[in-house]
Amino acid sequence: MATPRTHSAAPPSLWDPVVRITHWGIAVSVLFNAALDEGGSLFHVSLGWLVMALLLLRVVWGVLGPREARFSAFPPNPVAALRHLGQLASGKVRHYPSHNPAGAMMVYAFWACLALVTVTGLVMTGGATPMQVAEEKAAVASGDWSALIKKSDGESSEAEDNSLRHTAEEVHEVVANLLLILAALHVIGVFVESRAMRRNLVAPMVLGQRRK
Ligand code: HEM
Ligand code: HEM
Question: CA-to-CA distance for 68 and 63, rounded, in angstroms?
């Protein structure tokens, strides 16, 4: 696995709109769903679908986007990540044209957790779209429980279905909590790196900063 080349070794002064929109869309939705909202509500499922869409867009952008947004600009490389943390501790930071190797590992961990939390969400809801969830809730509110009964009377394997849903629920909750821990580490990491590099890393993720 190659370390990104460093001849244009400066992170972007402004990330492109797709990276910024997917970043803040995912960040706000995850924080809301994991910390504030009632799991399984219509709003929760809608935000979850939004996260799925943003994640897919970001994956496509990782192949087709500008150079610093491509996966090839920040390959997952645990050895380089440890080396980078060592350099950080000794105060000798190196600049990278995209995410630094430690940041890159965090980014891939985020994406893996997001994929897992959305897939388990889909398993729990049987793949129902937010529209179908809304219809189901409206039916139940008006006293028609058939939508829920239909869901659980598959001839072959009701027990299997239930056990799969139960496992998905457990994984969903654990990964949602893991996402919050990663987010806390991520924010600490961004501020530590910004200090070490004497460069505001948050500004390029918002509206940009003037080139020095
Ligand atoms: C954006 C990422 C997501 C996060 C951070 C997240 C987080 C959570 C958390 C923390 C809970 C537990 C809430 C509680 O029991 O108090 C939960 C429950 C739930 N989530 Fe999500 N979720 C996400 C995406 C999704 C998606 C995409 C779906 C469906 C397509 C979904 C469907 C559900 C359902 C049905 C429950 C209720 C489980 C139960 O019956 O206890 N979630 N979610
Ligand atoms: C749950 C909340 C969050 C999640 C899931 C998250 C996730 C991510 C991801 C996946 C990336 C890579 C962006 C890409 O290449 O598409 C990233 C980068 C970044 N995030 Fe977050 N983020 C969160 C919260 C925050 C917050 C609150 C801040 C502000 C302090 C922040 C600041 C940044 C910055 C500055 C970068 C670019 C770092 C660099 O220059 O390498 N993030 N984040």
Answer: 11
When the pLDDT of each residue in the chain is averaged and rounded to a whole number, the result is 89
Report the C-alpha gap between 77 and 166 in whole angstroms.
Answer: 34
- The residue whose C-alpha atom lies closest to atom 31 belonging to ligand 1 is 121
Q: Is residue 2 part of a domain?
A: no
Instruction: Tell me, in angstroms, the distance from the centre of ligand 1 to residue 182's CA.
Output: 17
Residue 7 confidence (pLDDT) above 50 = no
Q: Could you give the number of structural domains in the chain?
A: 1
Asked if residue 12 is part of any domain, the answer here is: no
32 touches 47 (CB < 8 A): yes
Give the pLDDT of residue 76.
Answer: 97
Ligand 2 neighbour 11 (Cβ under 6 A): yes
pLDDT digits (tens, 9 = 90+) for 111-168: 999 999 999 999 999 999 999 999 988 998 888 877 666 565 555 577 878 889 999 9
**pTM of full prediction above 0.85:** yes
Domain housing 60: 17-205
Q: State which of 43, 51, 124, 179 you would mutate to test the pocket of ligand 1, scoring each by most atoms of that ligand within 8 A of its C-beta.
A: 124
In a domain, 173, yes or no: yes
Distance CA 63, CA 47 (A): 25
Q: Which amino acid is at 165?
A: R
Which bound ligand lies closest to the C-alpha atom of 107? 2
| 3 in any annotated domain | no
